[in-house]
Write a structure and sequence with these properties.
CATH class of the largest domain: Alpha Beta
Strand content: 15-25%
Helix content: 25-40%
Distance between the termini: 66 Å
Length: 398
């Protein structure tokens, strides 16, 4: 009914009377049983009209201003959930740069409109952020002038977004940019303060989230899974106020640098005409090129090994706040959160696919050997270990 007045509605629908909204309400005695409140406060006819179903049929409400397919618009509130180390940040950078340029990304259509896009990075060091941006720019073929990147390491006094100071800081940056169309927050754990298992940090942020929607600023919030990789870490109530929730699941592909299955566990905008935008999709980054394959029956047929589990455990322990910054060493990349070998072992054993504790212990040390000798996934120095994907490249002591 968007853009049509009441006369057009009743003209085209024989079930509705050919009359004004007010006449319709009068004829059907919509207010017949209304009684003033005991305190003397009464509602005017104007107060009641917006509650009428007939009124809603003729409301002029703008259609969404879509950015990427019908998956992302300037009023979307979306969450991307995935295990640590699966490539959320790299994926979101590519998506954000494509959106800024108005170009297609994977199977999502771009609309050719230049978009002012802000990426708020609460996790990466400046050194790693620059490297990731160089890589993303190379894959895209250039850096759009309307893409903006805020790295929290540049702002030592940055406050969490569930504080008024933190929200005012971002609002001030948006104002200086002259407004934006979409913002990516990477990630909830890094940008909000408090325990993510509790509802309070998100509830403190939610009024601001809604205000961004009123300002026609689309949002994507990145979030980690916990030990259970089927949903986001912490409270489920966070998803209640979101339009879209997408879950990343690991896919085995030896040729790919990044490989995951993307499933939309919530999609309010899904409809028969746009269902393809929300289909389960396997996404890969191979030889510096993004690719996709979609279909309802896509599954990961790769068998989970003890090495896979060990890497998941390491990433999860760091993502869930159990990592620490070790004493300075030239052998450990700067600003890299680590855990000890003993922490890793204790967290691994309960999740091992082995049937006994003794077998799990043996599987753990085999997995550690595979991961550290490969030098692609895990770094080690002394008793400290870390995920190489989120660290700068430095020599490691095996």
């Amino acid at each position: 009914m968007t853009g049509r007045d009441w006369a057009e509605v009743v003209r085209d629908d024989p079930r509705l009377p050919g009359e004004s909204v007010d006449n319709y309400l009068d004829r059907h005695s919509t207010t017949r049983n209304y009684r003033p409140k005991p305190n003397g406060h009464d509602l005017s006819r104007d107060d009641l009209t917006p509650l009428s179903g007939a009124y809603w049929l003729g409301r002029d409400i703008p259609e969404p201003d879509f950015i990427l397919g019908e998956m992302l618009s300037t009023t979307s509130r979306a969450e991307l959930i995935g295990p640590t180390g699966l490539g959320k940040s790299i994926f979101l950078l590519a998506l954000a740069i494509a959106a800024a340029d108005g170009r297609d990304f994977l199977h999502w259509r771009g609309y050719g409109a230049i978009r002012r896009t802000l990426f708020v990075d609460g996790e990466m060091s400046r050194r790693l952020a620059k490297r990731r941006l160089i890589e993303a720019t190379r894959r895209h073929g250039g850096m759009p002038a309307t893409f903006f990147y805020l790295n929290c390491e540049d702002f030592p006094d940055f406050q969490p977004l569930n504080t008024e100071t933190g929200r005012n800081f971002i609002d001030a940056k948006i104002d200086k940019l002259g407004g934006i169309d979409v913002v990516i927050f990477d990630n909830i754990q890094a940008l909000l303060g408090g325990d993510m298992k509790d509802e309070e940090p998100w509830q403190q942020t939610l009024p601001w989230v809604r205000s961004l929607t009123r300002r026609n600023i689309g949002q994507i919030w990145a979030h980690h899974t916990g030990h259970d990789q089927t949903h986001g870490y912490g409270t489920k109530t966070r998803e209640w106020q979101l339009d879209t929730v997408a879950l990343m699941e690991r896919v085995e592909d030896p040729e790919a640098d990044i490989a995951f299955k993307l499933t939309f566990t919530k999609a309010r905008e899904r409809a028969p005409n746009n269902r393809a935008d929300f289909e389960p999709t396997v996404i890969t980054l191979t030889h510096d090129t993004w690719a996709w394959k979609k279909g309802r029956n896509l599954v990961n047929h790769g068998k989970r090994t003890g090495t896979d589990v060990a890497l998941d455990v390491l990433n999860d322990e760091i993502a869930c706040g159990n990592g620490t910054l070790p004493p300075y060493s030239e052998r450990i990349p700067p600003d890299t959160r680590c855990i000890t070998m003993e922490q890793w072992r204790k967290a691994y054993v309960p999740r091992s696919p082995a049937k006994t504790q003794e077998a799990a212990e043996r599987a753990f040390y085999r997995a550690v050997k595979n991961l550290i000798e490969g030098k692609k996934s895990v770094g080690k120095y002394d008793r400290w270990v870390w995920a190489v994907r989120y660290a700068d490249t430095r020599p490691t002591d095996n």
